[in-house]
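F.,

This is the one I mentioned.
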């Protein structure tokens, strides 16, 4: 039992580090593409920056943590009962801290570029006067819910439990590219509370007054994706029920064996070789 606990603790620590590091990389490079290179690469370049960074990180840490890098994805996994509440909370902490660290490093670099504006901008999300096309608050909320729904639904559809393995990262990365192609002109594309909050902290009040929408709407979209996925992919629910039943049976067998050892009972039928 001690060995099992130690192994689980080590795995949890690795997953925490992977989510922290992955979110840091996503914010620094992908948001950095919008902040430093946006005028040169445009919406298409920004979209591919986000998608390709997520794809690269998925191959690097996906087998360990699932490469969520996004509290909305983690919430979807929690609602789908693929992870525990404890794991979800640990992931959320790692993602927020990683996002803030990535934004801090990006700010450090941005400050070395003469004339580069960071206050009120800095790759943050917005609606109304802070939207490139002036989308209103209702439109921004709806589009953020829909875009996050797509991202989380793809995560749930291509992964069997948590890990992102094989070609799983490809549809996830491509989904994020498409999401940014439509979302950048509308809201700057949030779909990730950690990605939205981190730059807003350093951008100041104009961004912070609107960031609540980009925290709430993605979480709604992530939870909705899990509910819909449950209806469209019933085989996953059946497989999960089978795994749960097998785990309960294994626990019962172990408890029965432990009781025999403590009680000093001799092996009975089906429990061991007979004399």
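My design for it:
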């Amino acid at each position: 039992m001690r060995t099992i606990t130690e192994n689980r603790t080590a795995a949890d620590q690795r997953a925490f580090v992977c989510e922290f590091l992955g979110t840091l990389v996503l914010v620094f490079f992908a948001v950095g593409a919008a902040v430093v290179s946006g005028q040169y690469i445009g919406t298409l370049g920004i979209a591919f920056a986000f998608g390709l960074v997520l794809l690269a990180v998925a191959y690097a840490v996906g087998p360990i943590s699932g490469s969520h890098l996004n509290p909305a994805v983690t919430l979807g996994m929690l609602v789908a009962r693929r992870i525990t509440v404890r794991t979800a909370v640990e992931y959320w902490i790692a993602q927020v801290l990683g996002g803030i660290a990535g934004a801090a490093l990006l700010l450090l670099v941005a400050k070395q570029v003469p004339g580069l504006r960071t206050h009120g901008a800095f790759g943050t999300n917005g609606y109304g006067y802070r939207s490139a096309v002036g989308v209103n608050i209702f439109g921004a909320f709806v589009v953020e819910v829909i875009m996050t729904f797509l991202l989380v639904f793809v995560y749930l559809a291509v992964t069997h439990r948590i890990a992102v393995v094989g070609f799983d990262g490809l549809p996830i990365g491509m989904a994020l590219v498409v999401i940014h192609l439509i979302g950048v002109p509308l809201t700057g594309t949030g779909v990730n509370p950690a990605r939205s909050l981190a730059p807003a902290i350093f951008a100041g009040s104009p961004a912070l007054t609107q960031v609540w929408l980009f925290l709430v709407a993605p979480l709604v979209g992530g939870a909705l994706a899990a509910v819909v996925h449950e209806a469209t992919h019933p085989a996953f629910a059946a497989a999960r029920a089978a795994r749960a039943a097998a785990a309960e049976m294994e626990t019962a067998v172990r408890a029965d064996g432990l009781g025999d050892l403590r009680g000093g009972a001799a092996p009975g039928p089906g429990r061991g070789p007979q004399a």
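Residues 15 and 127 are 34 Å apart (CA to CA).

Talk soon.
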